[in-house]
Amino acid sequence: MGGKATWQPxxxxxxxxxxxxxxLCVTASIILFSGCSRSSKAGxxxxxxxxxxxxxxxxxxxxxxxxxxxxxxxxxxxxxxxxLNGRLxxxxxxxxxxFSPVSGRIVEIQANPGQHIEPGDVLAKIRSPDFGQAQADxxxxxxxxxxxxxxxxxxxxxxxxxxxAEKDLETAEADHTRALSEKERAVATxxxxxxxxxxxxxxxxxSLKAQIGGVVVEKALNPGQEIRSDQMGDKPLFVIxxxxxxxxxxxxxxxxxxxxxxxxxxxxRARALPDKIFRGRIEIIGEGLxxxxxxxxxxxxxxxxxRALRAEMYVSADVxxxxxxxxxxxxxxxxxxxxxxxxxxxxxGRFERREVRLGPESEGRSVVLNGVAAGQRVVTQGCLLxxxxxxxxxx
Length: 395
Known about the structure:
This protein is an alpha+beta fold and 395 residues long. It is 27% helix and 36% strand.
């Protein structure tokens, strides 16, 4: 760096830092003494004068310049996106929302929230005219088929003895076929409702049964309540799910989503449970942005083995990294000739300029993919002062 175009932005940055006037004075003094520094380097007897060479700046012990440098340790990369907002929901892969296929009135409730049930268990009983009609149709169809079978058998016997015409047999066979078809239709309709075609009597009581096993997590009906078969768009009568598995829907920014992929680990925190961290993994990342929020939906599967989390909770989440890298404060990085650099502390008072390759930046910290390692220390305040020293040496 050199020339007017370089020093003007540098001066503006220095003026924005605390102790700017002092730093400018120090910089000026460094330039004045640079000739002496270049000729004698270390050991010339001048107290506090730094040694500058190549990409390294070294200060003698007790140098006042060290008071204006802030140094922080490089830490391992923990996440690529933090503080994402999300909403928990039941896992639809293990969830059934139960509606009634018939209209009627609730006469008995046999399942309540928190109760574990198996497939086929009765949740509630409904007195239903629809179900009663299906039972009656099945019984009538069964009786009509028996009558048609007897009539067909009689006609065949009469035809053998010449007491009936061929057309009578054809008519009896047609009646039998119609009766058989009607019975099959009526029995199929009854089976859709879960009824038994061999049951005796028509009670009109429909048993609403569970289709999957799990825990009843929601119930929205009361004894004597009237329900309709066309209320599929309304709230379900029961919700059965596995509460140890939850879906998490995250709102992800355009910047963060570029570094996310399926299978990445997610650390979930709930405001109601500040001391607990729940783990999950990304399953699906949306293809489009929400035009209102300008975010992308990502769906995660969260382990809720202790059932501490609840559906519809709002939580925050950190998406952990799936690639190597370290995490440093963004203010430690400066730009030179379209390349990013930091100053690394090689030993007490000795700093080396080093080129780095950056990853995503979030909340004042940047991921460094190459150039520094965890445990090293970088200059976070005063790096422009060090750079000015190097530029003064190389000018």
